[in-house]
Design a protein that fits this description.
Elements: H1 2-10, H2 14-18, E1 33-37, E2 43-47, H3 48-60, H4 68-78, E3 80-81, H5 84-93, E4 122-132, E5 137-146, E6 151-158, H6 163-178, H7 183-186, E7 191-194
Parallel strand pairs: 4-7
Antiparallel strand pairs: 1-2, 1-3, 4-5, 5-6
Helix pairs in contact: 4-5
Length: 205
C-alpha cells in the first residue's frame, strides 16, 4: 500500500520501478549470409565474405569506386538482396568506407560595415520572406542593391525563387548596369555580399 502511494506521489509506474536493463544487446543479431539470385533465377545464401570481395572488385575500377550508398545499388543490380545498413557495416568492418567529401570553405564577410567609394563597388543581395494573409502563404522577395547609392538594381517577387532565378537576376544586372556603365573598362573592383542562402552559393551562381 505504501509503495502504491509512493508511485502516485513520484509519478512513476510499477513497470518503471521494476524495470531492469537487459545486459545483452537488443535487436536482431547480425546475419553472416546474404540472399543472392543467380542467372538461373535461383536464390541461394552466400557468405558476407563474398560480398566484401565483390565490393573490393568494384573498387578496382575508378568508375565504380563507390561509397556505401551507391554500392548498395550496384550490389542489388548484381543480384544481392542487401540493404544500405548492411553494406555500410560490411564496408566499415573491412575498412572500405570512403572519406566524407569536405565542402570548400565559404568566404565570410570580414567587416559588417562597408564604405564604398564609388558606384557598383559593393553590391548586396538578399532574399526576404513576406507573409500574404489573403493567400495564406509566403512571398519571396529577391533584392540586389548598390550600397554606394542605395539604389535597387534588381527586384523579384515570386512564390518560389530558385538558383536559376538568381542567375537571371545577375544577367539583368550585368547587362543593364555593369556593362552599361563600363565597369570592366573602368577597372571597378566589384564585391558582392549576401547571406548564407543556398541559392546564393549554388555552383551555377
Amino acid at each position: 500500500m505504501e509503495r502504491e502511494v509512493a508511485f502516485r506521489i513520484s509519478g512513476i509506474t510499477e513497470h518503471q520501478y521494476y524495470y531492469q536493463k537487459k545486459k545483452t544487446k537488443q535487436g536482431r543479431a547480425y546475419s553472416f549470409t546474404t540472399l543472392y539470385t543467380n542467372n538461373s533465377r535461383e536464390k541461394v545464401e552466400v557468405l558476407n565474405e563474398i560480398i566484401i570481395q565483390e565490393i573490393k572488385q568494384f573498387h578496382k575500377d575508378p568508375d565504380t569506386d563507390y561509397g556505401y550508398q551507391k554500392m548498395e545499388s550496384a550490389l542489388n543490380i548484381k543480384g544481392y538482396a542487401i540493404n544500405r545498413k548492411k553494406v555500410y557495416r560490411l564496408m566499415k568492418e573491412s575498412q572500405l568506407l570512403k572519406k566524407k567529401h569536405q565542402k570548400p570553405a565559404k568566404t565570410r564577410v570580414k567587416y559588417r560595415k562597408v564604405f564604398p567609394s564609388q558606384l557598383f563597388e559593393v553590391l548586396e543581395m538578399d532574399i526576404k520572406f513576406v507573409w500574404v494573409q489573403k493567400y495564406k502563404m509566403h512571398y519571396y522577395v529577391l533584392t540586389t542593391i548598390d550600397t554606394f547609392t542605395r539604389v535597387i538594381l534588381h527586384k523579384m517577387v515570386a512564390y518560389s525563387i530558385k538558383k536559376e532565378d538568381v542567375n537571371r537576376a545577375w544577367e539583368h544586372i550585368i547587362i543593364n548596369h555593369l556593362q552599361l556603365n563600363n565597369c570592366l573598362e573602368r577597372g571597378v573592383n566589384i564585391e558582392v555580399r549576401n547571406n548564407n542562402d543556398s541559392r546564393f552559393s549554388a555552383k551555377l551562381i
